Structure formats: C-alpha cells, structure tokens
Amino acid sequence: MTDLDSVAASLGTRPPAARRNAKGMDVPTPATAAPPEPGAREASEARRTARAAASRWAGTRARLGSAAKRSAALVVLVALWEFLPRSGLVDRVFVPPLSEDLAAGYELLRNGQLAEHLRASLIRSLAGFGLAIALAIPLGLAIGWYRPVAELLNPVLELFRNTSPVALLPVFALILGIGETNKIVFVLYACSWPILLNTIGGVRTVEPLLIKSARSMGLGPLRLFQKVILPAAVPTIFTGVRLAGAYSILVLLFAEMVGAKAGLGYLIQASQSNFRITDMYAGIITISALGLAFNQVLVVVERRFSTWRTT
Which PROSITE patterns does the protein's record reference (predicted)? Predict the structure, then answer.
C-alpha cells in the first residue's frame, strides 16, 4: 500500500484506481468526464437563446436608430409645414397647413379626380420612359462599342444634347399637335439623353484589363460584349435610367401645364388658376410620392441586374 493509500484509508476515502505499466509503476487512471447534471443542458440552451435574443435586439435598435436619423429632417419639415401656417408666421392662405392639404388630397381621391389625373400622367410618363429605354440603350451600346458609329453620330448628338427639351416643345406641338403623341414624344426626348450618355460612358469606361483578359482566353467579339462589356456597363446604365425616371415626371408636368385637360400638371395649374390652393398642394404631394415610388422601383430593378457586384 502506498503512502497515498494509507492517508486515504485514514481519512476514509479512496484515491482513483491506478493502473500499472509494463515496468510495474503505477499510472494514474484518467478521470472520466462526469455526466452532465440534469439542468446543465437546459441552462446552456437558455444562455444561447438569451444571447440570440440580445443580438436580434441590438440589430433592431441599430436599424431603428438609422431610420430615425434618415427621417429626422423629413419629420422637421412636416412639423414646420403644420406649425408655421397655424402660428401665423406664414400666410396660411398661400401655404395651408399640411393637414388641410392632405384632407384636400383625400377628397380628390374620394371623388375620383386624383385617380383620373394620376392615371393620365402615368400612361404618358411610362410610355415615353419605356420608349427611351428601348431606343437609347441599344444606340448607346452601338456608339460606345463601335468607333465608326460614334464618329458618324457624335456631331448630331453634341448638337441636340445641348438643346433643351422645353425649347423644342413648341416644335413638337406644331408637328405632332397637342394630343397624347406630343407629350409622349416630349418625355421620350428628355429621357433619352441621360440614358444614352450614361450608356456610352459605361461602355467606354470598362476596365481595359478585363477586356485583355477576356480576349486572352479566346472570347470572340460577341461573347466579349455579352460576358464582359455589358455586365460591366450595367451600373452606369442604370444611373442614367434612374435620372431619366425623374425626368419623365418633371418634364411631363411642364407639358401638361401648357396643353392638357388631364394629368397632375393640369391639376396643379388649374387649381392654382382657380385659387384652390389646397388642391394644388395635394397635386404636388402626389407628384413627390409618385417620383419617390418610381425611384425605389428602379433601385430594386438595378439591384436585380447588378447582383454580381460586391460593393
């Protein structure tokens, strides 16, 4: 019996059983892992659940904080719009409180006038915008990729890109009349330039190393354009598309103010002429909401076509 065994015997306890090796020496038996206590697993699971809940709450707080920062200026604008006319600091005859403008917009929506004007504007805007995309993107790709096409068309493009669409509106009215065709062509002309110029720029600014690498791997002109040039130019093209989306609303309003019997531009102009100020602001708010929604749709479409980008 070893000294340790003697001490253990005197204390009434036994040391862990020892094994003997090949030389007859005692080798302590490794302690076996104690089985988990009945409540240990539940406690561990509760700690993981608590950490996950804390992480989710931290993410929610971060998102709420970011949203609050982004909307702070808008909240201040809304508050000032409501407070200043009511306090008399601003003449409420010309700038009614926001709540009165929203009430007027609700009344226009309820009696169907707002839907009628909104539908007329949307049809004209989307028609001109869609035609601009269909025409300007292929033309921009051709000009940006084929030098002979660029040399042929550049003088004409430089001439017309510096001509304001508003200056050409009387010309469109003389040639096309004052009907729907005039307004759609007006929107088409205004929207074509940002799309066309950004498409040309997107093609011409593709990283030359990408083109050399693709050619070194044996890609032909068509595959090179399809696999390298077009994807690389997509972000710049969509920049032009988003600009054109905003133009499609802005220039249409101008056309509807000078020659239309329906549309948001006509609503604003007619309301101002008849001194229905709240209806005028209701039309302006509707246009702002429409432009914001249009831009968000284009952002979603851009992300859909640019999923390969990492930044």
Answer: ABC_TM1
